[in-house]
Design a protein that fits this description.
The chain has 13 helices and 18 strands. With 414 residues, the chain is α+β, with helices and mostly antiparallel strands.
Length: 414
């Protein structure tokens, strides 16, 4: 019926465009498939499972398909930090050297892209707040240029699958210079990995165990973890790369460990699924509580979702894009602060918050519209040293699916 609505107050004929629009990307060979969700006003308005999670095996995307969610891990780790803050076990202004002496006496590069031996002593220690806001001066190899990018790759290895122990990794990190002074600017980095190991040291147990006991078990997130047991691996979506020449998708899936790894990357290591992450997102949207389970106070969520970046810091590009034109960054999440300007990259109401993942996974909770959107794909992007230079001004074809999804959903609001 023309003008008919679906649960949550959407125009059905508009919302129904999501599936066909995204399927077109799959049919074109840009993506293997996706799982999406629209949740609003306490109810599910739409779920789509499109394409295949394993092309060679002919296995379809399904609601319970598992995904490497990459940096969607960061808000989860950040919630664990905020739980410790509520308990008085740490403060935002605390220097992290209190628990991680490996990061004491840090040196700062005179030129972020310059030689590693031209440094000066950091003016102060890195704080917990610096890590939560990615203003610690730390780096990722793929977000950096010059010698520091290659040094990260050589000394630290992959941020996703890493053979080092947390202690050895932190020691190696402390031997590298900072790219910027602590607090100076947003520079996307291993900061949340450091936060994860900080949480582990304070609690005296591995990060994965802390997250399971404090977040996953209370919320019923039974399929979210840093390690996937063999009996669940058939549900994991393969990671594909779309060749620049337009050829068929290539399977570039990461290796699976035979046992839980010592390195549990709080910045990007989690595997999860639609319904698990929906519980986490509903908790965030609900001011720290969902289905009668409270993890943190409402004011703690407010702290996380308040912009901490100065106008000068928002003036810098992120991954070669004017990312902060419409957004700010708080404690572990970004938020929309100018919905009109935000239209260039997607859609969101004032204060809508979330954080994406490198493989194209994305979520957003929008308090103004009481809405949660989740978009899950497995699309590989360059994560090697200086990858940021290759990505500037370019977006893989399949990545247009996420802003398409956002714009259709917001266009369907009545």
């Amino acid at each position: 019926m023309d003008g008919a609505q679906v649960p949550g107050g959407f125009k059905r004929e508009v919302l129904d465009q999501v599936g066909p629009s995204l399927k077109a990307l799959v049919d074109q060979g840009a993506l293997s498939g996706m799982v999406t969700l629209v949740w609003r006003g306490g109810q599910e308005a739409q779920v789509n499972a499109i394409g295949q999670r394993d092309i060679a095996a002919g296995l379809p995307m399904e609601r319970d398909t598992l995904f490497r969610i990459a940096s969607m891990t960061k808000p989860v780790t950040s919630i664990a930090v905020m739980m410790l803050l509520e308990e008085g076990k740490l403060r935002l202004e605390d220097p992290v050297t209190r628990w991680i002496p490996e990061l004491g006496g840090m040196q700062v590069l005179e030129d972020p892209a310059g030689p590693l031996d031209k440094t000066r002593p950091a003016r102060r220690d890195i704080t917990v707040k610096d890590l939560l806001t990615h203003r610690a001066g730390l780096a990722y190899g793929f977000t950096s240029v010059g010698p520091i990018a290659h040094a990260h790759e050589k000394k630290l290895g992959s941020p996703l699958v890493n053979p080092l122990s947390p202690d050895d990794w932190l020691k190696a990190l402390g031997e590298l210079p900072l790219s910027y002074e602590p607090g100076e600017r947003f520079h996307y980095s291993h900061a949340t990995d450091v936060l994860g190991f900080l949480v582990a040291r304070i609690e005296g147990k591995p990060l994965g165990q802390v997250l399971k006991e404090r977040i996953f078990d209370p919320l019923g997130m039974k399929d979210t973890a840093f390690w996937l047991p063999p009996e669940k691996r058939g549900r994991l979506a393969k990671l594909y790369e779309a060749p620049a020449d337009g050829g068929p998708l290539r399977d570039v899936s990461l290796p699976m460990a035979d046992a839980p790894p010592a390195f549990e990357g709080g910045g990007g290591g989690l595997i999860s699924c639609l319904d698990d992450y929906l519980k986490f997102a509903r908790m965030m949207l609900g001011g720290g509580e969902v289905d009668g389970v409270r993890l943190v106070k409402p004011e703690t969520i407010d702290l996380m979702c308040a912009n901490r970046l100065s106008e000068e810091q928002r003036g810098h590009t992120f991954m070669g894009m004017p990312f902060w034109l419409s957004q700010g960054f708080g404690l572990g999440v970004s938020m929309v602060i100018d919905p009109a300007k935000h239209e260039w990259m997607g859609a969101g109401g004032q204060g809508a918050f979330g954080w994406p993942g490198a493989f194209g996974t994305w979520w957003q909770a929008d308090p103004a519209h009481d809405m949660i959107l989740i978009y899950l794909i497995q699309d590989s992007m360059p994560l090697g040293p200086e990858a940021v230079t290759a990505m500037q001004g370019q977006r893989p074809t399949g990545r247009i699916g996420c802003p398409m999804f956002q714009k259709i959903v917001y266009g369907a609001l009545t």
